[in-house]
Structures are given as structure tokens and as C-alpha cells.
Amino acid sequence: SNSKPSITAIVAATQSNGIGLDGGLPWKLPGEMKYFARVTTGEEPSSDLDQQNIVIMGRKTWESIPSKFRPLKNRKNLIISNKGIDVKESINTKSFNSIESTFEFLSNSNTNLNSSNKIFLIGGSQLYKTFLITKPPLINRILLTRIISEFKCDSFLEDFKSHKSLKNNLPIWKKSNHLELENWLGFKIDEENEEKGVKYKYEMWTLNE
Ligand code: FOL
Prior knowledge:
This protein is of the alpha/beta class and 209 residues long. 22% of the residues lie in helices and 27% in strands. The protein has helices spanning 30-41, 59-64, 99-108, 125-133, 178-185, and strands spanning 7-14, 18-20, 53-58, 75-80, 93-96, 119-121, 141-147, 155-156, 173-175, 192-195, 198-207. Helix 2 (59-64) links the parallel strand 3 (53-58) and strand 4 (75-80). The protein starts with 6 loop residues before the first strand and ends with a strand. The relative contact order is 0.22.
């Protein structure tokens, strides 16, 4: 098929776009992590593989997930590694040596994919960047958790907010309002959150057509 899959990036980032430190997350925010798990799993977790959402990640992100949580349960885990298959494959874990081969798998498994299956890009910085700077971008939605406190970080999210259309020089990413986010998620959330003195906000950004 020639139709591009609809892919949502999900990421938590500071106001200076910091997302990682020393191969892991710079913070420990259990409530925020619950949000990640709930959103990526979907509201009706299913052990039926054909009903599951897909999470796409780079090899370093795969390695950053604590082994007891890996593969992420009730989700199909797709891992992209330049070296190709170097991740133990299982019923819900598959590895790929390129974005192209990952997309090929997604379009071929389309027949099995329920239209309600969602596809998420869950990191890390290298894949977020490639998916964002490709023209047109390979993702059409970003679920961004904006962490208000600053944390020391050594990996960063591509500054997508500065990306402009070549045609009219207007921003290509548009921030949705809170209701639009809740409608897309299918559940209600607080606009402002705080854990351990760390404030954060759930945002959704979509591609201008
Ligand atoms: N997006 C958001 N919003 N927050 C994140 O922390 C985040 N993290 C990643 C990608 N997008 C994100 C990548 N890093 C787990 C660990 C690290 C990770 C992603 C997931 C993980 O262990 N997830 C379990 C949570 C178990 C729990 O603590 O409840 C999962 O089942 O999803």
C-alpha cells in the first residue's frame, strides 16, 4: 500500500528539550510513567496480538527499559538497530535494521492490523530526530509531556516547534487544546501535574495537514 502509517511520537522533555541522561531518564516520575503505559497500551489491554498497539523504539531505548518491564507488555515491540537483529525476538518483539524495513513490516501487517491499533514512536533522540526532520515528517502527532523543572540531560528532543513550512514560513506543528488531547486519548487527565515537586503538563501537537 502507498498510504503512510499514522504514527504518534510520545516523549517527556524539559523546557530545553532534555529527554535523557546516561542512557536512561533524568527523572523518576511514576505517575508520568503510568500515563506513558496507559496511552501506549490503550484503554483495553489485550493479550490478543492483533489487538495490540505498536511501540517503535531505537536499540538504546530498548536497552534503557528495565528488564522486568521489557518487552513492554500488551504492546508489539519493534526495535530498530543499525546492526539489525541483535535483540532476542519473541512473540511480541521484532527487530529491524532500518526505518524503511520497519515501515515495510507495518504496511504488510496492515491486513492483520485492526484500524484501531495505534502506532507509537517511543524514542530515543536519534529516531525522534529522523522522524521529525524527514519531509514530510514520519509522525503526524506528538504527545509531549512538558517537564517544567530543569534536569541535567545529555540527550535532547529535536526542536520541532521551530520547524517551518517552506511554502509559507509558518510553524508546521500546532498545539492542540486540552479537550482535543482528552478526546484523542479517550480518557480525562489533569492539565497540570506535580510529583515530588516536579511540575509537568501533558500536551498534544499535530502536523498542520
Ligand atoms: N514518554 C513519556 N511521556 N514518558 C516517558 O517516560 C517516556 N519514556 C520513553 C519514551 N517515551 C516516554 C522511553 N523510556 C519504560 C521505561 C523507560 C522508557 C519507556 C518505558 C517502562 O518501564 N515502561 C513500563 C512502565 C512500568 C511502570 O513503571 O508502571 C510500561 O509498561 O510501559
